[in-house]
């Protein structure tokens, strides 16, 4: 039988980081710390395999485990020198969950286990602190009652509130030993009345119940939501760690806190964190009291006058600093540790890779590589490409006027405007209607995950930089302002008040997560300033990646942004966007509604110089880099006016009969425009449209080629092709225009004609098509639509059901469907290359900016990926990851 | 160098039927007849390879050919005993086209070639018939001028009309030798004035020009149209046959005619045809004079008193009868021959497989098999499956009142109503607007092909059973009444008149092609009575085919028709059609617009008994045969009312707020409903709908199982599946309902759950799906739509362009696209069978009734094909063809 229990403590440990899958992050971290000789209270970890067994076996712990647990408890007793259930010198333990990746706050924890009437009395006697003993005891009953016996948290809170009211007390700190003793009695009565089972007095029974409940909490609703959001498999399970308790709340020589080896917001290398004197660990995390700074420097920067740990507990602080240094060197990563100081003695309770903002992550990775702690490849691989998104978020325009209404902690960077929403359900609902939502809460809890996910910014009135709201918001990449104390939430009137203002739910506010400021209304934002380490990291990524990264850019402005962000070309320029500008829409509409070729040609002649100017600008910006121009794609009726007066304007402009125009407009309507008269079908039926576009491209190339040293590299892309002959028919006309322009201008220019592969038939007939096409660009949006037979515009209703019910594992419009759409792409690559070995292959659907899909593209050997300008850095990094992974597999 | 010229005549021939591809049908037939010792004027055929060379080589005949032609001409001179260009005893020849399949009237012919001023005089002298000689000469100048020199036919007609007017003559027969001599002079002047080149006096020059022109006529517009309509490759080319002239117009001991070995309308075995005394062959075919019957019996049946050939020329008639008997035995098929009697001597000029109505074809094939002339397999293979369509066309309801307005020859069977249209262009235009058009013409010519194709019925005022109109209409399967003499067409006033009526263009009339009657207005039709030979042939087909043939039938009435026509089950019962009946649409709409599950369930409870009754009826009709029921497929909004008052009715019926209903109706709208919230997506999001349908199916099965000996075999089909998990989710709910119904009723019933494969992803993931599905039915309509990314509803505009420009070779909604959609089907079959060897495979898209597509299905090894009831016989026959072909390939 595989080993199920792994002990740690007293400078040794069984197992460690190498079996993290079995021990969970917490268990593995404790084992490593113990082996490093760091001060860790002794304990043991029950593996996640036992979790599987427990869940599979109708929530029964496996046979024989009890004996093993008892033996392991004996080991703790031996090290600590106290006895579990011993009335004289009782041992208390914590029982905690620990999955192989961190799921903060998602599963259950029980502290102070081992207390009963007898041991509580013993604890009081031994510590000489009745208040501490009974406070601990009532905390235990409450946690145990809630987690194991199913008596909701709020019942206990109610009782406590009533007790306070009866005694005229407000704060927990005002309650004395007698109060807590009363509460213990009241809690036990509550449990007896409400619980399914009696409260177990016998410590081993307590332990047994707690282990099962913590394993079981793997499957609670919020943990499931968290896993779905974070793509964590249900099958992993959690380990359970049982560990001797140490107390940060036994007096003013006690403390508890969290520390990061580097600043998780900026990445700067300095011990960073918070602590509370005379408190238990959950007091810091839950954000109920606003904690103090660790270092004097931080305290001064923060303008606080409450002593930093460095000042209040210099010796423990030194131990902390030594410990975190050793941990970072050991793990080669920034660590987030929990510590407790009990009666002046320093203990580490947890270490893990610290969560950090994307900016901090990049800074830390590049710094560590510069410090030779990790390789450049490791630095590149350490950054989740999607996380760069938040660094690319806009900040507030410094020039823009603004009215601050509140200030809090800068808990997660970025600026965002949105409507105030006061609960998570409404946040989800309003966000579903496409609104940008700012969730405003006193504090958040794991129950708010769905609302936080739906929101675009988080504002809390309580809690610190490591509060739930702050941690989760950073993870999600949302701006967050935490602990804005002057805000009072009034749920009854659905509003909040600041010192001077009243803000109703639904009103717009703006958060600046980088400063902690809250502003009235919408404050304009500007593009982010890219940090040095960001640029450094991406330059390293560029060294590792194989695929080129292009941008989807329709205008010269987009193209400029794309180049700043590192695009090496334009992979998709949608010419239809150029058709929609106010000054040319009338000509476009006249073209669409033309009664015959003559009037269509007249309208096209008007459009030609405008299109040419667009391309001239684009070619100038791209200075010789490839520019892939897709010919007109959408059905013509998309350009038609919705309003009668606009149609009348066209009638006036063209001198055409209004009724005739209206009739033609009606005839252009389609029942399924996505599958209608669009793409190269327009090129076949109205060849003069594509001819005009090709002419505009070529004439622009001639013009820019004359004025610049870098000759433009137009690549003309034909959309919606389904057959080789179809592509050829369009290409022949383009080539004819190319020849004509070259002859007339006397300038020889280089261009290629290729196609989108965005229909299943195009993928299947890729061999035929590649005989004539120079390049393929996978249009995975349409390819996904047609392969699944799903219109993205209509899909939201049922796709949500599909994802919720697990019928689909991911939204195929977000992550490329490898097993369906992906097979068509593979086929197309294979057949296209067989027909034309130098065929250029790329992707320009939105999947081109999705890291998971980019990995797939690397495996297919695509030559380039193209995505929206703001995703170019993400794509560069993801392409590097994919190349490194592919390399490591060779 | 391959042989380019093949001679025939005098009881021998070079080549024959075995090189029909080279000699064309006409040349091969002449060679065979000559070898059989039948009386054939001598001649030679230049191969279709020379046609290719001619067309490829800028319309120049190849080097050396002239010498070969001269040698072959010498052979003719030797046999006939006259000289080409010999003024004393001139030889005249015909120059005719002949492709490997018959293209009647599509290409050019030149007769009387060899005449010039000198030889015409010689001919006059030798025959002692000046009128004949100069009539022949002017005919030659006209044909040559038109075909070779490009002087339009009408110029010659104009001259002739003016001559007649000037001399007070009306009919050609009234013109004497002097008139024709004048015309010769006038025609030569006309040619000299209008032609690009001079009229060649030298006979060998005439011949050379004629050969080139006839080869060139392969590419004229009407021939191209004909080939497109009949799927004849452009590359085949035509052969050219040069043959000594014989004349049916040298006096009353001369005649010309056509004969069929069996009646081409009914298939009855008797010599059938027409002849004209003292006429040239084209006079019969062109329908300018109404010809006489061949046999006395036919004359009597036709109520004519003009002597039949049997009576007027008994000896030539006996020769004809002997000849056609030998030809039919030789070719093992019904023959259509052209003959000429010159001065009492009988000649055969052509033989070919005779065109026939589908009914005649079936009768002839079964008769010939019964006569042991051919095998049953050959009989089955000889019938083009699509041709059965016309036998399944409705006839006139004998009970229906009717007003006859005219009568003509019953030239092509079937009854049809439609609007009168007087020219082919308008016919095409009106038909394009979806109208049923009856093309009414004095006579038709090859220039009318496009209009005849667009029409649904043909009515002519001149011409006989073998006129152009009659032949083409039979080929197309359109009802035709020919030679309705009492009708006068008035093109100026766009109407026609009968003895008593005036019928304007656009008025509706009805034709009965089986009787030759024309009726005013629309006369109701009834289903066809199936002939004995039809049933016999299909029973033979059933012996040869491997695939089962099911019908797509939504109602018990459809199912009854399907069974009569031989369906072995229902392959597709669309349950949505059941939702649309007036009495249940309100409940359906209430269900669609339900605000919540409770009201949806209430509406479904109302629908359940009605659905159950539908299935009860269907199961009764199908008496134990498989019935494949597709669960609800279309988007829900298709059931919504278009009119506000209908929505109000639902508000009243459900007590719901009108505005709320309207809002929900608006929210149901989709931008691309084909790819929207439909099919099993409804089953995932609103499982209660499919559960109701499954319950209705199972409860009906229980009920019919109790009352009948044949237990129903429901096969529940899930539409629009794209993934295995998706199918499984739906199937599990169906199975749960099945279990519940079985438990409650105490009846064990058999059922299967399978799926449509109609999305590319379903085909790709067929392995996953087959693990749970009992059968696949290829929904090739949707599969074609999604594979091509084409909405059939929107495609007509651009698909026409695609077909016209040759970008697509066939409409993929008519003939399955083998190389795209077909590959997905192959993949799905392979992967599905690998996952489940006993997987049942079928097709239920409209391709299931298309013979070409059925061949593909056979090659994929599908188990069944399902099509609309009226196509079941076609599918049975096509499946037999496919199986025979597959067998012959093994």
Give a topology summary:
Two copies of one chain form a homodimer.
Chain A: E1 5-9, E2 12-13, H1 20-35, E3 43-46, H2 48-56, H3 65-80, E4 93-98, E5 109-113, H4 117-127, H5 130-147, H6 153-167, H7 177-194, H8 203-216, H9 221-229, E6 239-244, E7 255-260, E8 272-277, H10 281-285, E9 292-293, H11 296-302, H12 309-312, H13 314-331, E10 335-342, E11 345-353, H14 358-370, H15 376-382, E12 395-396, E13 404-407, E14 409-412, E15 415-421, H16 424-432, E16 437-441, H17 449-454, E17 457-460, H18 468-476, E18 480-482, E19 488-490, E20 495-497, E21 502-504, E22 508-512, E23 517-520, E24 525-526, H19 532-544, E25 548-552, H20 556-564, E26 570-574, H21 575-579, H22 582-592, H23 597-622, E27 626-630, H24 644-654, H25 658-667, H26 680-685, H27 687-707, E28 713-718, H28 724-745, E29 752-757, H29 760-764, H30 766-770, E30 775-778, H31 780-788, H32 796-804, H33 821-835, E31 840-843, H34 851-860, E32 864-867, H35 872-889
Helix pairs in contact in A: 4-5, 5-7, 6-7, 14-15, 14-19, 15-19, 19-35, 20-23, 22-23, 22-24, 23-27, 27-28, 34-35
